[in-house]
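can u pls check wat happens w/ S-adenosylmethionine
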Amino acid sequence: MLLVPADLPFPASPEALYGRTGPWVLEIGFGDGRFLVELARLHPEWNLLGAEVAPASVSRALRRLKREGVAQARLFRGDARFLLRNLVGPRALERVYVNFPDPWPKKKHAERRLLQVPFFRLLSTRLAAGGALLLTTDHPEYYEFATAEARASGLFEVRPGPPPPETLRTKYARKWLDQSRPIFHAAFVKTAEADEAFPPIRRYPVPHALMQGTLPPAEAFRKQVETAPEANVVLLEAWQAGPGLVVLARVEEAELAQEVLLEARPSNKGVYVGLRPSCSPLVTAGVKRAVGLLVRWLEAQGLETVQRSY
Ligand SMILES: C[S@@+](CC[C@H](N)C(=O)[O-])C[C@H]1O[C@@H](n2cnc3c(N)ncnc32)[C@H](O)[C@@H]1O
């Protein structure tokens, strides 16, 4: 039920993902998963997809879907834009729901809002002809902002209307209705398609290096940081694993954040530096950079690189 970045096929075949065909519907920011359960009850023929960035919410939603016996949903922990770009093929989705998105009310945070022209451009390539995004929100300013952005994209028609009753039963809907806040709703119906293809992120072969010399003890390790336009990489901590070292790295790229375990261990050819076998991230440019950063730290500790493949 849980999709992980390294296993996302592109373009995904709903038959392979769900074992059946049917309308494909995405919920962005599913929170505790309540709305997915509602959709499964109302539309047993729909194949449901959910994206949610908060890990605790994903765990809660997974438990809820299992408890409620919902088998027609696949969940992704991460940014919906990454999922759209890396799993959903052109014109594959019938509908997208966004219920009570984070409004980012402060002006300096407005750039974090999801529903902006670049998002609508990407979405237009993944929605089927006549497909729509349904927005329900308690936040008048975000509602105005999102409708203006959708219109500015030139790719969507905004159709305001009453919210579908099921969108008023989510956790946040209940919270705001209890406070008697007004609720705003519109369907953004696709009328045209952006001319870019929005291809999935580039994947690389597993990066590694061979070094010579003596590994330093884990206590010698200090946090390493590399910032670059394509990826931010931090080597957070290292610990001893037998004669080798394991290093925890955080790799942040556009719309994707991964925690990656690296290792440096003696082998019969020298010191092998690469990904820990138990860890299978999506091998991106940022993951290659993480291995490179570890190699450079080991070079600074006196090891010599004899072979590099990244
Ligand atoms: C205010 S909550 C609403 C949750 C739920 N839809 C409800 O109505 O109860 C917004 C949710 O969107 C999630 N979120 C924000 N940006 C996201 C993104 N780019 N992709 C996926 N989820 C996102 C947040 O983690 C949060 O759980």
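The longest helix spans residues 285-300.
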